[in-house]
Structures are given as C-alpha cells and as structure tokens.
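Person: Please work through this fold.
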Amino acid sequence: MTLFHAIYNLLWGDLITIPLPGGSSLGLSLLVILLIPAGIYFTIRTRFLPFRLFPEMLRITVEKKHTTQKDSISGLQALIISTATRVGMGNLVGVVAAISVGGAGAVFWMWVTALLGSSTAFIEGTLAQLYKEKDPLYGGYRGGPAYYIHHLFIRKGSARKHSMIAVLFALSGLLCWCGISQVIGNSVSSAFENAFQIPPLYSTIVLVAVAAVIVLRKNATVKVLDRVVPVMAGLYFLITIFIILKNIGQVPAVFRQIFEEAFGIRQAVAGGFGAVLMNGAKRGLFSNEAGSGSAPCAAAAADISHPAKEGLLQAFGVFIDTIVICSCSAMIMLLTPAELTQGLAGMDLLQTAMQYQIGDFGVFFIAVILWLFSFSTFIGILFYARPNVAYLFGDNWLSQTLYKVLALVMLFIGGLAAYTFVWDLGDIGIGLMTIFNMIALIPLSGQALSSLKDYESKSSRGH
C-alpha cells in the first residue's frame, strides 16, 4: 500500500509548487509537466493542427471506408473504438468533480488542454500507423506504443524479441485496464441502485454476462461499438442541447462565469487560481488520454490509405471527448442553481442536476447513459489489450482469453465491492503508460511530422 501510494503521489501529486500572487499557488504534477509542454511543442511543430486542419478532420470522418485486409477495420471504426474508451465515467462524474473543486473556470482550462492534446494525439496515432503489423490471430492489423517503442530501442535484425521499455508500457496498460474494469463495475451498480433500486449483485451479473458474450467472441467488439458509441454520444449531446435551449437566457452568464473564473478574477482574491487551472488541466488530460498511449492501440488497427489520416482522426477524437461531451456535463451542472447541488458530489450531484432540468426521467437517463458509457469503455479497453498481450506473450488464444477472463472477474468484483486500493491501479497504470509512451513519442515525432507534410503535399496535388 505504501509503495502504491508513493507511486501515485509521484505521478499525480504536486511535484513542483509555484507561488502565485494573492496567496495562491500552482501545483504541477509529473504528468502535467510532461504532457502540457509536449502538447505545446507538438501544436507548434504541426503549425497549430487542431485549428488549421479541423475541416480536414471532418472530411476524413465522413470519407468512404477504405480497407485492403480481411477482418481489418476502417479509420472511422478505430476512431469509434478510441472514443468509446475516452468517453466514459470521467466525462460525467470527473467533469462534475473538477468544477466542484476548481469552479466554472476549470472548464476553460479543460478546453485548452484538449486543444493541445489534439496535437499529441495526432503524433501518437500517426506513429501507431507507421509501425503497425499484420495480426495473425484477429486478422487486419495491430500495434501501438509497445511496437513503436520496440522499434526505437531494438535495431532491425536484432535477436532480442522485447524492449524493456515496451514491456513496461504493455504491463502498465494491462494493469491500468484491470483497475478501470473494477471502477466501471462499481459505477454501473451504484447508478442502477440509486435510480432503480436494483441490488448491485443483479445489475453486475447482467453487466458481466453481456460483456462476456461480446468480448469472448472473436470480432464482435467492433460491431457492437459501431452501434453503441454513436447512439450514446448522440443521445447525451441532444439532451444537453434541449437543456441549453430550455435555459437559453442563462447561457451568456454561464460562459461569462467560465471565462472570468478561468483567469482567477474571483478566485485570485480567495487564493484559488491554482486549483482552477490544475483541476481543469488534470481533468482534460485524464479524460482525453492524449499522450497516454492507449488510443494508438486502436489507431494501429485501422486499414487506412495514409498514416496521417488516422492521426487526424485521433486528434478529432480528443475534440469529441472534451470539447463536446465533457462540455455537455459542464453545461448541465452550471445551468442548475448552485444551492440545489451544494454539498453533493459525483453521481449524486449529476443526477440531482438532471432531475432539476428534466424531472425524474433525468435520473433514469443518467443511469442508462452511464451504463452505456461504462460498458463501451470496458469493451474498448479489451480491444486495446489485444496487441499488448500479444507483444508480451506471443500470438496465442490462451493468453488473449485469460486476460479477458481476468478483466471480467475484475468487473464483477468492482460491481460488488466498495472502494479498494486496486482501483488506484487505473490511475497508476495510465500514469506509467504516459511516461513510457512519452520516452518514445518525442524522439519519433519527426517521422509523424514528415508523414503530415507528405499527406498535405499529396492533398494539395489532389492525390
């Protein structure tokens, strides 16, 4: 326990504290120190890609499917898989927590972090494409950070089968996804108990049974996510638009509050500007996962005509996650009177806000949406696990199936158990993944930038 807490604090705790005027301070964690400067660097090197190439991202999203290998997935399907895992509990409860601690201003810094993260997501998504391999088990392609890290440290023709950094990345990923499985199980069972008074045992058994039917079949994952993700994201977006239109008169005041509090006009007096900035930044980083190396595990599987195209799709995925879905949660909360939500936290706070906005249906709606968000995240992380299990244990169905069974067991335990330190494995795992991924991302980024230059050159010539 002491070791786990020490690692957690090293990754997510304040490594450096910068004093600010007014008695405030700015605490910087190791991951913030790594990811924010990297995001700024990649944004400059890509010549502000999130803004400059946003129309191109939209065009590629609706582009006709291009596949050359049997059982391969398209670029859009890879985007749907990565969106399934990005859009999870963090978009609901996590955003609410960030605003509860950091105020409305945290939303602005969440947006800024997402825009910077889009450039990072482009680099890692493109590299995943450049170093992908054919998948002899599932068909199509596989890859991700473990594979491009391997190529960075192991020379071609070497007898060594594994790179230590790549092994550590793959192990951190498998550790992270086991921890997340428990959190998913508990989130779903708690939401259904609150909304429908269904005992956790029953809702957990149904969740695990449905998940098992999908993940233990060879290629059911992509088909299910193709249907679930657009529906769940669309429903949440539409209900938010309804709430915004219902409270249209308050919207200008909400945006004014976000921008005023973002720069500490109110918080600076109370000495809380650091909390505003860091809660927004940390929530943005944790939610969109840019730089963590998880989404490239899906990006590598895409059968697409140019590596940079998948990079652009993954950059667009960060926009969907943070600018669209996280902002939905923020607007629902900020359009609800503060006195109604005072003293509440997490799912209770969000369900109370929804009940105020659209009545008892809001409580049920959030429970069902959380189920869909969490369920799709679980299926998505097991897709991420495939190439990492293969890298560690070779191409065999036994190791693939054993990991899926382990994740299902964790999902079941999480549905019945209260908080345990095992949940922190998710945070520790994603933190370690980020460090190992960034070790390779910066040295290899030149290849992704060259790919972008090549893509833009061909696009300008109409190729």
In short: Residues 267-271 have pLDDT under 50 and may be disordered. The two ends are 56 Å apart (CA to CA). The longest strand covers residues 16-19.
